[in-house]
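User: New here, please read:
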Amino acid sequence: MRIKVQENCASMGIFVKHTEVLDLVNDQGRFEGELSAVESKFRSDNPELLKDIPVIRAYRDFYWKLGIDPTKTRPSGEALRRRIVRTGKLPRINDIVDAGNVVSAETLVSIGIYDLDKIKGEPNLVLSSGGEKFEGIGNKVEVLSPGIPIMVDGEGKVMHIFPHRDSVLTRVDLSTKNVLIVGAGVTGIDPSLVEEAVRLTAKLLSRIGGKIVHEVQ
């Protein structure tokens, strides 16, 4: 599978790295050691200094360009780091999601993981035309305005609002066996860091039976 980034998105500085992992048996609790390690590593951080880290700065700048206030809607890696400082803990969802959270908290790269069996065709990153429906995880269905960067599958189903919101339609649950891992890149973030974040996530998942289909693209 390849993800196409349309020119109107690429011109905004958007890029992605991705791979697929197949034949997983999802469960809970198998990454407790990794979760605890990343919690210990960042628990004593000063959250006020996070905004000065180049990766977070790049995501924040991109959010402002989209009209999103990043002090209210945090980039995912920053949100995870702040949660560690605030509560001492990362969420425990399921093994596949937990692997992505471990890597995102460590690298600060926004990682999306999608159930491959719920995706039709090949995904594209496009700007919304307006009127598309999006059902975010934990949110009601909303109708999108024009000009929002979104990832859609071959049927036009909105999987993701770039780079921070995923849809219930392709979310990972305990029945998920095959996944698409996507690292979200924007201007100011080294593509090699995004690539490494995707590779690390896939490597974690390979430890619970998953088979990596190809090198990160």
Remarks:
- Residues 191-206 form the longest helix (16 residues).
